Amino acid sequence: MFISQKTYALRMNFRIFYLPLALVLSACSSTPPQSNIQANSSQQSIVNQADDVATELRFTENLNSLLAQISQSQEIPLPVLESGFVDAKTIPSIRKLVLPPSGAFKKNWLVYRKRFIEPVRLKAGKAFWDENQAFLSQVEQESGVPAEIIVAIIGIETIYGRQTGNFRVKDVLFTLAFSYPETPNKPAREQLFKEQLKELILMCWTEAGGKLPAINSSQGVNGTRFNSCLNQNSSYAGAIGLPQFMPSSIRNYAVDGDGDGRIDLRQSPKDAIASVGNFMKKHGWQAGMPVSFPVQGNAIPAAKELADGEPQLKYTVQDLIEKGILTQQQGDIQAGGVEPQSKALIVDLPYPDKDGSDQVQYFVGLNNFLSIVQYNRSYFYAQSVAEFAEALGYKNQSVVPVEKIESPAKSVSPKSTSEKVNSKKAHSKKKSKPA
Predict the structure, then answer these.
(1) Distance between CA 282 and CA 279 in Å, rounded?
(2) CB 392: neighbour CB atoms within 10 A?
(3) Does the predicted model carry a pTM greater than 0.85?
(4) Domain ranges (residues) in the chain
(5) What DSSP state is assigned to residue 5?
(6) Which of 7, 214, 220, 293 has the most CB atoms less than 10 A away?
(7) Exposed/middle/buried for 53, CB within 10 Å: 0-12, 13-18, 19+?
C-alpha cells in the first residue's frame, strides 16, 4: 500500500464524506459511498461488464503497450503477461463509483460515524479480538500500535473480511488506468492506477514464484497462481483483503504474520493484523500516545480560525493551550496528555443539523491521527477509527512509566516505543480483550 507520500491529494480530499482513494499509500474500503454498497464476493458473482467492442479494443491496445513496457523493464516474459490479461475487461460502473460527489452534496460526519461505529461492527470486532487476542497482543508489543486500533481499522474496512469487494482486481485497475472518468485530475489519477497495475503484476509475479529480474523465461513460474492472483477480488478502487491494501502497499508493508511463508491478506487474519501494525508503525505511529482531543464549545471560534483542511501538524500543543483550544491537562504527559511541544492540527468534521444548517465538530488531531490519515486520506475515517477503538476499550491518553508518575520532580522526556509499550503493560496487565 502506502509508499512515499504523494502530492496529488488536494485539500478537499480530507473533507469529503465518502472514503477517498488513497491510491499509493493507503488502504481503501471495499464499501462504496452511501447506497452503492457492494456485497462480498461470497454473496454475488464477480462484476465484469465491458464497454462496447470498439472502445474496449482501444483500451486493450493501451494495456498491451503498458504490458510490453513492463515486460522489457522487469524482464518478465511478455507471453506470460498477455496470457494473464487476455480476458481483462473495463467495468463501466466503476467509473461512477470513483466520481466525486455533486455540488449539492452535503458532507455529514454524524451519518458517516453512525455507519461505521454501530452494533454489528462492534460485536464483530469483539469476536475478532477474542479469536486473535494472543497474536494481537504480540503485534501490539512489537509495533507499538494498540490492538484496539488494529481491530478498528479492519472492522471499518471490511467488517473482518465480510466486505472485501466483488470486482476482479485486474479489471478494476485496467478500467481506472485507461478509462478514468472525465475529472480535472484525470491524467494524474490514470497514471497512479497504471503504477498500481504495475505493482499488481510484480506482486503476482513474485507470489507465483518468479524472480525479479527473470531470466527471459517463465520456467519455475506457476502460471495458474499468477493468473489467480491477477483475478482475485478487490474493492472498486483495487484494494485487497481484510485490511484493504492497494498492491503497492502489499509489496511495501504487508508481512507474513502466520509464518507460512506467504502473505495472504484475504484468508489469514494474522497476516492482516501484522500488516496493519507494520503499516501504522512505518507511518509514524507513536506508541503510548493519544490520537486526538475534542474541542469544547467555548473554544470552537478559535478552532474555526485555524481549521484549513490541510493534513499538516502546524501548531504546538502549547500554542493551542494558549489560545484556549486545549486545557493545561492535555499538555501534561503525566496526566494523560502529551508534551507541550508536540505538534497538532485542527480537524473539522462538518454535518447539517436537523434544520439543514451547516454545523462542524472540531478535534485537535495529534501525530497518531495523521498516521491513521495515511491509511485512508479522510478526516472522517481517522476519527471513526479512533472512536471505534475507544468503543473497544482504547484509552485515548498517554501512557508513561509508573516511576515518572510517582516522581513528578524529575523531568519527563519522550520515551522510546519499547519503554512506552512496556509501561502500558505495567499499567494494565490484563489487556487481552475489549471491555
Answers:
(1) 5
(2) 22
(3) no
(4) 1-291+366-435
(5) P
(6) 293
(7) exposed
